[in-house]
Amino acid sequence: MNPRIIHSDKVPPGRARISQAVEYNGIVYVSGIVARDPVTGKTVTGGVAAQTKQVLAAIRAILEEAGTSIDRVIRTEVFLQDMDQFEAFNKVWEDFFAKNPPARICIQAGRLGPGFEVEIMATAAMPSSRS
After folding, report:
1. Which residue in 81, 83, 92, 121 could disulfide with 108, CB within 3.0 to 4.6 Å?
2. Domain spans of the chain, in order of start
3. What angle, 0 to 180 degrees and rounded to 10, lies between the N-to-C axes of helices 86-96 and 48-66?
4. Is 49 in contact with 115 (CB distance < 8 Å)?
5. What is the pLDDT, as a whole number, of residue 17?
6. What distance in Å separates the CA atoms of residue 9 and residue 78, rounded to the nearest whole number?
7. What pTM does this model have?
8. pLDDT tens per residue, the chain (131 residues)?
9. Buried (b) or exposed (e) across 92-103, using 16+ Cβ within 10 A?
10. DSSP label of 42
């Protein structure tokens, strides 16, 4: 089985030349996603909560393009610019993953990029009928 590149037009491209996600052997690996406005491509303002909401919406769009859903996320890696913002981040997180949350690591990153307060990578399973 060859890797399948996933791209959603609902998520603006970043500056780096990377795939938004790759599916391989029934697993979707989503690249680190930051908060870009889907219309303008500019950095989302409004703090870590607003950025987390946009990042998770982008991840949801990428997973839907792949043929799976945010409910099938099994693991995430979260990078926060400032761990003092964890509570604001986590409140939004809990809205997206109200039931059966995925495994998660959350660390403070030294520098994410201009204006970005959160970056999230995700790993999700494809539905068993597509494996």
Report:
1. 83
2. 4-130
3. 30
4. no
5. 80
6. 23
7. 0.94
8. 789 999 999 998 777 788 999 999 999 999 999 999 999 989 999 999 999 999 999 999 999 999 999 999 999 999 999 999 999 999 999 999 999 999 999 999 988 888 999 999 999 999 985 44
9. bbeebbeeeeee
10. P
Q: Residues with Cβ < 8 Å from 110, sequence gap 6 or more?
A: none
For residue 125 the two structure tokens come to: 């399973």
Residue 84 burial by Cβ neighbours in a 10 Å radius (0-12, 13-18, 19+): exposed
What is residue 129's predicted lDDT score, i.e. its pLDDT?
54
Q: Tell how far CA 86 is from the center of its chain.
A: 16
Three-class secondary structure assignment of 78-129: EEECCHHHHHHHHHHHHHHCCCCCCEEEEEECCCCCCCCCEEEEEEEECCHH
The listed CATH number (2.60.40.10, 3.40.50.300, 3.30.470.30, 3.30.1330.40) that belongs to domain 4-130: 3.30.1330.40
- Residue the block writes with tokens 């799976």: 68
Cβ atoms 70, 56 nearer than 8 A: yes
